Amino acid sequence: MSRMLAIMKKPVHDMRQHIIDVARSLMTNKGYTAVGLAEVLSTAGVPKGSFYYYFKSKEEFGQALLEEYFSEYLGRVDALMARPGTGAERLLAYFMYWSET
């Protein structure tokens, strides 16, 4: 089975997540403004015409990217702040995490 066919057989939610994951990876490496939708879809192995099946608009896609990013980020911050230690130690752990990412 070809790679494209295998990708297209994923359930809608999985394919939507796959597109988001590919976009995040590309944007992490190149920067947000250096990545276009065509590159995301090509890298994800998704035909350009199928994009609107998974997202109503480019704005919805952008919102999904931001929601994913902040959900993950806030989860990490919550975990850092829940660690044992003084407030200063937890704050220092946050700054160390922030400087490494």
UniProtKB/TrEMBL annotation:
Statement: the UniProt record of this protein carries the keyword Nucleotide-binding: no
Residue span(s) of domain HTH tetR-type: 13-73
Species classification: Bacteria, Pseudomonadati, Pseudomonadota, Gammaproteobacteria, Pseudomonadales
Protein name according to UniProt: Transcriptional regulator, TetR protein
Pfam families membership: TetR_N (PF00440)
PANTHER family recorded: HTH-TYPE TRANSCRIPTIONAL REPRESSOR NEMR (PTHR47506:SF6), TRANSCRIPTIONAL REGULATORY PROTEIN (PTHR47506)
Keywords from the UniProt entry: DNA-binding, Transcription, Transcription regulation
Organism: Pseudomonas syringae pv. maculicola
DNA-binding region per Swiss-Prot/TrEMBL record: 36-55
Keyword Hydrolase: no
Ranges annotated as spanning the membrane: none
GO molecular function terms attached to this record: DNA binding
